[in-house]
């Protein structure tokens, strides 16, 4: 199909719906293909890794990894831009996009596989996409297999007995902070969606599709409305200046990014560099121990490169300093 991007993904994959929402906002013709046995061969032609989302451009190029997918597509189709014009907001938006992908994924993934009701709900939905048309006992058996496998994989995002209460508290606090911020604007940076909205929303929306996460999100009506709005985001106005955003966005940056995500990410990267099997770090929420996660070291390096590339940091640095983020980005 000429001029049409193809996106292989799944509703239950936060990174997939993030990319689909972006294509919807940009009004780029695209076909959403739920990855499954019928389209696996075509999907594999464009996928270096067995992950979703995968995007095939109309020219036949395969793209994976949601952040570079958005960045590459944005470079080709710059309007309407997802990057606020002022340099402070633009960097904070990129930082929150990364925070959503990396830390927000801990919220979502932990909560999805922590309690039987959520485990069953997610496993059934995954089984249904893997074997469309299957029902009854065969579907239930598949779902049981998926549940067992996934429950035993929560350690992968750092969820364990010690960290579980910290992850849940961080999610509850993050939702409260988002609720306050979204009380007076439709999107994180004002009247239109920014890079940050897509990253953070993919995770929060997916949590909302699970029974426990649904209750948590719906206890915050502004966040619930944003979850719906971001399914098909539309411009409702301009980006706001940083001065208008700061009163309610700085607390999110300080309480979640500066106090938890960046120190964790730095410790994770150091542990990988030292070839450690496990690391412990003191976060504002307590001691955090886990096996290092490879992908995150690369994304922290990218974040630091992005920070280093900001030409004039005179307005940005004091904001990052107030949020407790600066030292981690300069490292
Ligand atoms: N960093 C990647 C992460 C992609 C990812 O982890 N995708 C998950 C689903 S959310 C996946 O494909 N897992 C294996 C599978 O579903 O087969 C991105 O941003 O796209």
Please tally the β strands and state the result.
6
SS field, number of helical segments: 14
Strand order, sheet with most strands: 2-1-3-4
Gyration radius over CA? 19 Å
Q: Low-confidence parts, pLDDT < 50 over ≥5 residues?
A: none
Order of helices and strands: EHEHEEHHHHHHHHHEEHHH
Query: End-to-end distance, in Å?
Result: 46 Å
Quick one: overall form? Answer: globular
Mean pLDDT across residues: 97
Number of spatially distinct domains: 2
- In percent, how helical is the residue content? 55-70%
Strand content: 5-15%
Q: What class would the helix/strand composition place it in?
A: alpha+beta
Which cofactor or ligand species appear?
Answer: glutathione
How many strands, what sense, and barrel or not for the largest sheet?
4 strands, mixed
Describe what you observe in this structure.
The chain has about 325 residues and is of the alpha+beta class. The model has no long low-confidence stretch (mean pLDDT about 95). A hairpin with a 5-residue loop joins strand 3 and strand 4. It has 2 domains: about 5-75, Glutaredoxin, CATH 3.40.30.10; about 85-110 and about 160-330, no CATH class. It is built from 14 helices and 6 strands. The protein is globular and about 60 Å long. Helix 4 packs across helix 7 (about 165-180) and helix 7 crosses helix 10. Bound molecules: glutathione. The site of glutathione has 11 residues, from helix 1 and helix 3.
């Amino acid at each position: 199909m000429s001029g049409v991007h193809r996106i292989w993904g799944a509703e239950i994959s936060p990174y997939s719906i993030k990319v689909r929402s972006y294509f919807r906002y940009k009004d780029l013709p695209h076909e959403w293909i739920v990855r499954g046995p019928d389209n696996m061969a075509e999907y594999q032609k464009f996928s270096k890794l067995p992950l979703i989302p995968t995007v095939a451009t109309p020219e036949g190029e395969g793209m994976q990894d949601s952040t570079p997918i958005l960045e590459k597509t944005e470079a080709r189709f710059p309007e309407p831009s997802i990057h606020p014009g002022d340099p402070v907001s633009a960097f904070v938006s990129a930082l929150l996009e990364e925070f959503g992908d990396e830390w927000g994924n801990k919220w979502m993934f932990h909560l999805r596989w922590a309690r039987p009701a959520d485990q069953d709900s997610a496993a059934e939905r995954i089984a249904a996409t893997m074997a469309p048309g299957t029902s009854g006992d065969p579907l239930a058996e598949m779902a049981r297999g998926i549940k067992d496998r996934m429950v035993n994989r929560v350690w992968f995002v750092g969820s364990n007995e010690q960290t579980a209460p910290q992850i849940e508290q961080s999610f509850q606090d993050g939702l409260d902070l988002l609720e306050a911020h979204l009380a007076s604007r439709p999107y994180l940076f004002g009247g239109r969606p920014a890079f940050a909205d897509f990253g953070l929303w993919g995770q929060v929306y997916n949590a909302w599709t699970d029974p426990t996460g649904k209750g948590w999100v719906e206890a915050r009506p502004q966040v619930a409305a944003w979850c719906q709005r971001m399914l098909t985001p539309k411009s409702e106005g301009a980006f706001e200046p940083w001065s208008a955003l700061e009163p309610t966005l700085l607390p999110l940056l300080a309480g979640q990014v500066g106090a938890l995500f960046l120190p964790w990410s730095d410790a994770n990267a150091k542990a990988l560099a030292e070839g450690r099997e496990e690391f412990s770090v003191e976060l504002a929420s307590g001691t955090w121990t886990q096996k290092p996660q490879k992908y995150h070291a690369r994304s922290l390096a990218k974040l630091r490169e992005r920070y280093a590339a900001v030409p004039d940091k005179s307005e940005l640095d004091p904001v990052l300093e107030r949020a407790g983020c600066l030292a981690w980005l300069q490292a």
